[in-house]
Amino acid sequence: MLSSRVMNIAPSATLAIDAKAKQLKKEGKDVVIFGAGEPDFNTPENIKQAAKKAIDNNLTRYTPVGGIPELKKAVSDKFRSFNKINYDGSEIMIGCGGKHVLFNAMMAVLEKDDEAILPVPYWVSFEEMIRIDEAKPVFCETDKNFKLTAEKVEEKITPKTKLLVLNSPSNPSGAIAEPSEIRKIAELAVKHNFCVISDEVYEYFTYGKEFLSIASLNEEIKKLTITCNSVSKTYAMTGWRVGYCGAGKEIIKGMENLQGHSTSNPSNIAQMAALEALNGPQESVKEMVKAFDERRRFIHKRLNEVDGISCVEPEGAFYAFPDISETGMDSMAFASKLLDEALVAVVPGAAFGMEGHVRLSYATSMHEIERGMDRIEKWLKEKI
Ligand SMILES: Cc1ncc(COP(=O)(O)O)c(C=O)c1O
Q1: Residue 184 gets which letter from DSSP?
Q2: Could you say which residues of the chain have pLDDT below 70?
Q3: Does 167 contact ligand 1 (Cβ within 6 A)?
Q4: Do 227 and 104 belong together in one domain?
Q5: Which of these, 183, 182, 188, 154, lies nearest to 166 by C-alpha position?
Q6: pLDDT at 10
Q7: How much is the pLDDT for 16?
Q8: How far does the centroid of ligand 1 lie from the alpha carbon of residue 168, in Å?
Q9: Cβ distance 228 to 247 under 8 Å?
Q10: Which of 115, 299, 345, 351 is the 20 to 30 A CA-CA neighbour of 365?
Q11: Which residues, in sequence order, are CB contacts of 211 under 8 Å at separation 6+?
Q12: What is d(CA 13, CA 128) in angstroms, rounded to the nearest whole number?
């Protein structure tokens, strides 16, 4: 009975490892999990209070499909001050999480057989979203530091190119695209008239490195770009499901129509929480970023001390993406043996379109990182 559209969705290679790690934990095994794609911090108190207040004030009904005007205004202000992009209220939409916004954005612009350029390694859902829309992912190499260059993008452009997916800082590599390359990529998009979906959910996790929103460059590229974001990572709000985007009026209208026939508005209560997240004190974000930065330096150093592993410095997000090819194992074998034999869960690079690597999330305590790294070191010493 299943449609071919659904049958063609690849099961996530991350799920098998994740399910196994959780099962082992349930059985009482002491597993160190480096798989998390979310901050280990709690949602800040002021945000939780705003949600409680929203319930008490009976903000429990439908809202406009694309979000409440106050939240659109807060998003517009944030785009202006942080990203240097001028989106007015009609150029903003709120969705049920960043993933949902990205899904809507792709569906709004992709036609059957369109080509979508996808830099490798990529976040797992991008490829499937493109395929669900019956478009074709065109994989684009990055350099040895996982950085996207305009030269590589240009090689992939054909008359069928409809969009480029930009994800800086990147999940899984942490790479931050160089502003000089972003400028050249913007010129290519304008010249060849294709869209850019810019996924900026890790924009705060840049640890002092320069971050540039492509839509901020000029009006021409702004018109072609859908700037997607979310409160999930920045405010430790992954479970609240509020994402947002900025784009041209027509695209926003199309996306709102689509959302109007699927989820309708994101939760009214969660929107009030997101409003407080954007407008309230930002100290908790700074504290979280500081903690991640310490862990980032530590895990990078520890990984490079292990024989058989080498790791490019992760510049952003909260992931390290070491090369494990010298161990002689492919990424799936590495991840599954590491879990079975040393009780450490990592995600195989194959899930992100790049063999020979695994992803470790450092969104876990320093103590856990230390324990996990000790185990990896000992396990590999015995293994190779
Ligand atoms: C690159 C990237 N984009 C988007 C998302 C979506 O996050 P959310 O749907 O929680 O906003 C994630 C989450 O892991 C991600 O890693």
Answers
A1: H
A2: 13-14
A3: yes
A4: yes
A5: 182
A6: 79
A7: 76
A8: 12
A9: no
A10: 351
A11: 168, 169, 176, 203, 316
A12: 12
pLDDT confidence of residue 11? 75
| Cis before 39? omega within 30 | no
Question: Does residue 98 belong to any structural domain of this protein?
Answer: yes
**Phi and psi dihedrals of 377, rounded to 5?**
-60, -50
Residue-number span of the structural domain to which 330 is assigned: 4-43+283-383
CA atoms within 13 A on the CB side of 152: 18
Q: Using DSSP, state whether 344 is helix, strand or coil.
A: strand
Can you point out the beta strands (E) in the chain? 32-33, 92-95, 115-119, 136-140, 161-167, 195-199, 225-230, 243-246, 319-320, 344-345, 347-348, 358-361
pLDDT of residue 63: 98
Which of 171, 229, 244 has most ligand 1 atoms within 8 Å of CB, for mutation?
171
Which of 201, 246, 258, 252 has its CA nearest to residue 221?
246
Q: Which class for 374: exposed (0-12), middle (13-18), buried (19 or more C-beta within 10 A)?
A: middle
CATH number at residue 217: 3.40.640.10
pTM of the model: 0.96
Q: Please count the helices (runs of H) and the strands (runs of E) in the chain.
A: 14, 12
Q: Please identify, by atom number, the ligand 1 atom nearest to the C-alpha of residue 170.
A: 1
Yes or no: say if 311 and 304 are a contact pair by the CB < 8 Å rule. yes
Strand order in the sheet with 358-361: 319-320, 358-361, 347-348
Å from CA of 103 to ligand 1 middle: 11
Does residue 248 share a domain with residue 295?
A: no
Measured between alpha carbons, how far is 309 from 373 in angstroms, rounded to an integer? 12
Distance 123 CA to ligand 1 centre (A): 8
Which residue has the least CA distance to atom 1 on ligand 1? 171
